[in-house]
TrEMBL record:
It comes from the Bacteria. CDD domains: SGNH_hydrolase_yrhL_like. InterPro entries: Acyl_transf_3_dom, Acyltransferase_3, SGNH_hydro_sf. It is a multi-pass membrane protein. Residues 11-343 form the Acyltransferase domain. This is Peptidoglycan-N-acetylmuramate O-acetyltransferase. The keyword Transmembrane helix applies. It is found in: Cell membrane. It comes from Priestia endophytica DSM 13796. Belongs to the acyltransferase 3 family. Keywords: Acyltransferase, Cell membrane, Membrane, Transferase, Transmembrane, Transmembrane helix. Gene3D superfamilies: SGNH hydrolase. The chain crosses the membrane at residues 9-30, 36-58, 79-97, 149-165, 170-190, 210-225, 237-256, 262-285, 384-404. Residues 407-463 are annotated as: Disordered.
Length: 618
């Protein structure tokens, strides 16, 4: 049987959705005050679990009278059209205007069409920390993939649970066990200072957020909430709890960071439980906060929050120059938000609502004529719309099938890592010296004098160079390796593309010979992600006798401030450690960086090398 009982629409939940989606947008715009904005997704998960389970559950008793087919058709009508339009539009834009992203977007688009993008990102090792250059404009669809997987499986699991356990109270206990297992999985799989992509994207490690909402629906059924006024004392307590719960969520948006270990080891679970308390309060007809959140502007944003969430990320990514990622240009941000809201409104009125009300058949009849007679009867506007749709689908197909070729960037193997020791490539240096001598013999007297003068300056700069110097780093270290070797022929360099600090800890013992008071150790790490205090302390412990120089980072990503704050703190804590402030030196010099805003040009390489040299020679 089909369950014909419709639950009461709670306008206050639209207000909560509005706060959630605005927090996510602020987070993706890299506002420093919204570092916890990613938790807006957790709010959506709890809401989805609660509302979907409320739809499935009967008003009375524990006997499910539920039409699976009708449920899944409604979910498809609600979610797929808007998402597919966004995916198609994004791929078409990339094909036409952002060819360098096509290779990335192609796989993301296909996985998103089948709502498996979260596992695609995991198995294809797309780091939670975005790669350099523009990130994938479809990356926000990982959360929708989890929700769609939930919509597919949860009705079946719930029906089986009721069939086996019969009573709603027992089923709620089973769901509670599921919540604990999922949350514990996140805590156990998470490793502090390591890439959290597996626990962040995994359906298994994020299921507890949806299940918290499901559990709430079982113990606080929406269909059974009475509209009768509560006693004055109870109502005051109820309103007080809702306000405190809401303030906790707002404070989390401001102060919680994705780099905090606690977030993955119980923090998200506590946040979701607090969200469940807030949802329970708002859903009661007597709640004051629920009425305040029903304010029309908030309701407008909340009712269109799905479209806003879909469109905001591709709009931000595709309209933000690579060199400005992580910085705030308020005119650009205002325009991005405006475009997002306009497109979301168009999607709501022209795509989402027509299909939800009338279905796919009526919608396609409007734009795709089935006969020649029908085509002739169409107005010019409708004909142009039909042709435009055909061309868009054609470009999209070319993009995802590989017919449209994107720019492929090949990384030369010899540049992915480098290890340089003082005795390396002696023959090459001898040849280089002979060439220089030959060239000098051909120079004019004036040029010789200029050369001698510059050599004197160079010698003054390089007074008493250290006998033993070691430099370890990531791809930025590779950029300056040649320049460093020219300044310090006896230097030992170990650089590798993509290296994070925990990887440096593993190889640090092999360079124990540099741990003495006469040695210099240059550490340049943090470009590829943050690290914990414990990790940097561990690395520094291997060089506690050496003179250590920490090079901070200039990387237009969210972890830049976290990394630089930690490095500055360690420079103050350790007597043998000094900070080389590359961030400050390079902040006003975009010419120091290549197209990704991270890796160095020749001028940038020279500037950083000189900065290191000045610090070492002080």
């Amino acid at each position: 049987m089909s369950n014909k009982t419709h639950h009461r629409y709670v306008y206050g939940l639209d207000g909560l959705r509005a706060f959630a989606v605005l927090s996510v947008i602020a987070y993706h715009l890299n506002f420093s005050w919204a570092k916890g904005g990613f938790l807006g997704v957790d709010v959506f998960f709890v809401l989805s679990g609660y509302l979907i389970t409320s739809i499935i559950l009967p008003s009375h008793g524990s006997r499910l009278t539920f039409d699976f087919r009708d449920f899944w058709i409604r979910r498809i009508r609600r979610l797929l059209p808007a998402a597919y339009v966004m995916i198609i539009a994004t791929v078409v834009w990339v094909v036409l205007f952002k060819e360098e992203l096509l290779a990335t977007v192609r796989g993301d688009a296909v996985s998103s069409l089948f709502y498996t993008s979260n596992w695609w990102f995991i198995f294809h090792k797309l780091s939670y920390f975005d790669s350099f250059g523009s990130p994938s404009p479809l990356k926000n669809l990982w959360s929708l993939a989890i929700e769609e997987q939930f919509y597919l499986l949860w009705p079946i699991l719930l029906a089986v649970s009721f069939y086996i356990f019969k009573r709603r109270s027992v089923v709620s206990c089973v769901v509670l066990v599921g919540i604990l297992i999922s949350a514990m999985s996140m805590g156990m799989l998470y490793e502090p200072g390591m890439d959290p992509s597996r626990v962040y994207y995994g359906t298994d490690t994020r299921s507890f957020e949806l299940l918290v909402g499901c559990w709430l629906a079982l113990v606080w059924p929406l269909k059974r909430l009475s509209a009768k006024e509560l006693p004055v004392k109870v109502r005051k307590i109820f309103n007080g709890v809702s306000i405190v719960s809401f303030l906790i969520i707002i404070l989390c948006f401001f102060f919680v960071s994705e780099y905090q270990t606690f977030v993955y080891q119980g923090g998200m679970l506590l946040f979701c439980l607090n969200t469940a308390i807030l949802v329970a309060c708002i859903c009661h007809p007597s709640n004051l906060l629920g009425k305040l959140l029903s304010w029309k502007p908030l309701r407008w944003i909340g009712s269109r929050s799905y479209g806003i969430y879909l469109w905001h990320y591709p709009v931000i990514v595709l309209t933000t120059p690579v060199e400005e990622i992580g910085t705030q240009n308020y005119w650009r941000i205002a325009l991005q938000i405006f475009v997002t809201f306009v497109v979301a409104e168009w999607s709501y009125r022209m795509i989402e609502m027509p299909i939800r009300k009338n279905g796919f058949r009526q919608f396609f009849k409007r734009y795709i004529p089935t006969t020649t007679l029908t085509w002739k009867k169409l107005s010019i506007t409708r004909k142009l719309s039909t042709v435009a749709i055909f061309l868009i689908v054609l470009v999209f197909t070319a993009g995802v099938t590989g017919l449209a070729k994107g720019e492929v960037r090949h990384e030369s193997p010899e540049k992915t890592s480098v290890k340089v020791s003082p005795n390396q490539n002696e023959e090459e240096h001898a040849v280089k010296e002979k060439k220089e001598e030959s060239q000098q013999s051909k120079d004019t007297d004036s040029k010789e004098k200029e050369s001698e003068s510059s050599k004197v300056d160079e010698q003054e700069k390089s007074l008493t160079p250290p006998e033993k110097i070691f430099a370890i780093g990531d791809s930025v270290m590779l950029d300056i390796a040649g320049n460093l070797h020219e300044k310090y022929p006896n230097i030992t360099i170990d650089g590798k593309v993509g290296r994070q600090l925990y990887e440096a800890i593993e190889i640090a013992p092999s360079y124990a010979s540099f741990n003495n008071k006469d040695a210099v150790v240059v550490i340049e790490l943090g470009t590829n992600g943050y690290f914990t205090d414990e990790q940097i302390d561990k690395l520094l412990s291997y060089f506690d006798e050496a003179n250590v120089y920490l090079v901070n980072t200039r990387v237009p990503r969210s972890w830049e401030d976290q990394v630089n704050e930690t490095l500055a703190k360690k420079a103050k804590e350790y007597k043998n450690v000094k900070l080389i402030n590359w961030h400050k030196e390079s902040l006003e010099h975009p010419e120091y960086f290549g197209g990704d805003g991270v890796h160095l040009t020749q001028k940038g390489s020279e500037a950083l090398t000189e900065l290191i040299q000045d610090a070492v020679n002080e």
